[in-house]
Structures are given as structure tokens and as C-alpha cells.
Amino acid sequence: MNKIDKKISKLISSALDEDIKNGDITTRATISKSKKAVGKFLVKADGIIAGLEIAKAVFKIVDPKIKFDIKIKDGSKVKYGDVAAIVSGKAQSLLTAERTALNFLQRMSGIASSANNYSELVKHTKAKVIDTRKTVPGLRTLDKLAVKLGGCANHRIGLYDMFLIKDNHIEVAGSITKAVETCVKYNKKHRAKFKIEVETKNLKEVEEAIKTKADIIMLDNFEIDEMKIAVKLIDRKFKVEASGGVNLDTVKAIAETGVDYISVGALTHSVKALDISLEITL
Questions:
Q1: Over the stretch 33-82, which tens digit does the pLDDT of each residue have?
Q2: Which of 207, 215, 220, 226 is catalytic?
Q3: 74, 199, 205, 241: which is the annotated catalytic residue?
Q4: Is 134 an annotated catalytic residue?
């Protein structure tokens, strides 16, 4: 990502405003305006680096004259002791931008590292591990970018780009069949081509979903043996997503059932930040 789009720039500006408001009073009081400094982004844990372009944008918004030299490309594997980037310029600017830049960088690298762990476990299968909408409000764009940098894929971005009929929709609509039919009618009425995914909770519901015009059938909280049966029933007529109960201990077995997608909410809702620090020297 060579350019930061307006949406991300706005997000960064909002984060900086949250942290700085009327000014970094500690830095203003203790550091001369004329003092220059150099900072090294030190990696303190093995993982995948993600968010360096975002961190660079943070510094550039604080001070356009800051020099930010990326040493390791986003999406690359890193190990303890690596220097991911070097930033130089006014010491005041470095100190003021530090925390916001690290917040983005550590979170995104944590997501990317987790995504990489999952993708490595299923790479011998056709299954793709995908994310969900379980993201920090306002950070979805960056959370999903980090997922891709870690080697996994994105599910729908929001409520507007794909039909996903879940149990509550089915309950209110009356049945899986009725819910899918209304989505098909919606597409026709609006001359749209939104894909239709429908959630199933048991084999009986899978049998009903197979008779519809859905594109993807979700197997929600199926046991492995039941999932294998469902995949055979579907017989490649639909794409199949497995959801629920997915973790690093179960994802390999789930992938080996023959599903196409495995959604993992934990990729973005239970993030462990990658340990990265900014060490500043004169």
C-alpha cells in the first residue's frame, strides 16, 4: 500500500486528535523545538509485521518533514531484534506521534501474525481462513487489511456488500427458503448481483438450503463428522463456510473436511498486539 486513501487519513487524524488535542504538553515542556532525534522501531517478538505504511502516515501528518525509512515490507516475517523502520526529524514530532503510530502498528501486526498462524495450518487444503465483522468500531478497514497481510482473506466488509442470512433473519422470515427467496427478489428488483449466504445449524437445514438459490452455505457449530456429511450432501453445488468453534487446535481438521471457507472472529476481536517499541536517540 503505497498511498493512504482519504478514509484511512481521516481515521489517523481522528486517532491523533484523540491523543494530542491541544498539544503534547510533556514534550513541549521538556524538549527543545530545535532538537533532532532518530527512532528505531524494534521488533521484540516473532511474527508478521503489518501497519508500517500506516505508522509512516501518522508521523507525516504530525510533521511532513519527518523522514520515515521502512526497512521491512508489510506482510513480511519478523523476528526478535529486527529493526522494522527508522524515523528521524524533530524530537518533539517523534515523541508526539510515537504512541498513535505504535497503537496501529502493534495491533495490525498482532492480527497479521495470528492470521499467518491460521493460514499455515490450512495451506495443504483448498480452504481459506476468512475474517468477520467482529472488528473495533472505526478500525475495520485496517483490521481487514492486516488479515490479508497475514495470509488470510476477507469476508464481506459490512452489511451492504453481501447477503448473509443468519438464524435471526430465518426466524423472522419464516424459513431458510423464504429468506433466500426474498434476497433473490431483492437482487432482481434492484438489478444487483449480491451473493447470498445462508446459515445452517444442522443437516436438516442443509438439505433445505441445497434446494434454494443461495451461493454459499454456512455450517454453524457443526461437529467434524457432521460437517463431512454436510460437505458430501452439498457436493460442490455451493461454496461452503465453516463457522463457530474455530481455533488453532481445530482449524486443520475443519479444513480437511473439504469446506471452502473457515471464518474466525478471533482474528480481529481477540487480538494480542505484537511487541514492538520505538527507541529514540539523539
A1: 999 999 999 999 999 999 999 999 999 999 999 999 999 999 999 999 99
A2: 220
A3: 199
A4: yes
223 noted as active-site residue:
no
Q: Is the pLDDT of residue 99 over 90?
A: yes
pLDDT class of 5 with cuts at 50, 70, 90? confident
The answer to whether 199 is a known catalytic residue is yes
The predicted-structure confidence for 202-218, as pLDDT tens digits, reads as follows 999 999 999 999 999 99
CA 89, 93, 96: angle at the middle one, nearest 5? 145
Q: Is residue 171 annotated as a catalytic residue, yes or no?
A: no
List Cβ neighbours of 122 (8 Å cut-off, separation of 6 or more). Answer: 128, 129, 251, 252, 255, 262
When the candidates are 3.90.1170.20, 3.10.20.30, 3.10.180.10, 3.30.420.40, the CATH number that belongs to 6-114+272-281 is 3.90.1170.20
Tell me, what's the pLDDT at 47? 98
Q: Which residue in the block uniquely carries the three cell numbers 481455533?
A: 247
44, 71, 133, 134: the active-site residue: 134
If we measure between CA atoms, which residue out of 264, 60, 58 comes closest to residue 144? 264
The catalytic position among 71, 148, 166, 201 is 166
Q: Is 98 a catalytic residue?
A: no
153-263 sits in which CATH class? alpha beta
